Amino acid sequence: MLINNNVIKSAALPERSQEQNQAVSQLKENNFGTFLNHAINEINSAQVQSDEATQKFLNGQNIELHDVMISAQKAAITMQAALEIRNKAVEAYQEMMRMQI
């Protein structure tokens, strides 16, 4: 008796729908590197906005002091959060490296 492997595979694994294929492709696009790049760009954007607000204030342009301070604090908090996340990731990596197999 001959059994066709293709028949067995198709019976065991149902075909993916178009929606499932799109979901899989989106997951591939949304990998960790993309997430990390997006997060770093947001941190940079907060820093740039803070610098621009400070320069506007120093040049005497129409910007309030509290707006400058708020943008500076937002930039500081985002940077501090990023550093804490980095520290936790490094700590987790070091912990994994200490594990015995």
Description:
With 101 residues, this protein is mostly helical. It has a domain of 67 residues. Helices cover 80% and strands 0% of the residues. Helix 3 runs antiparallel to helix 4. About 5% of the residues have low confidence.
What is the mean predicted local confidence, pLDDT? 83
Number of DSSP E strands: 0
The number of helices is 4
State the share of residues found in helices, binned by percent: over 70%
N-to-C CA distance: 46 Å
> Hey, roughly how much beta strand do the residues contain?
under 5%
Low-confidence stretches: 7-11
What is the alpha-carbon Rg in Å?
25 Å
SSE succession = HHHH
Biggest sheet layout: none
The global form is flat
Protein name: Flagellar hook-basal body complex protein FliE
Subcellular location: Bacterial flagellum basal body
Pfam families: FliE
Keywords: Bacterial flagellum, Cell projection, Cilium, Flagellum
Write the layout of secondary structure elements.
Layout: H1 5-12, H2 18-29, H3 32-58, H4 65-98
Helix pairs in contact: 3-4
Name some characteristics of this structure.
cilium; flagellum; mainly alpha; 80% helix; 4 helices; 101 residues; bacterial flagellum
Tell me briefly what this model is.
This is Flagellar hook-basal body complex protein FliE. Belongs to the FliE family. It is flat, with a radius of gyration of 25 Å.
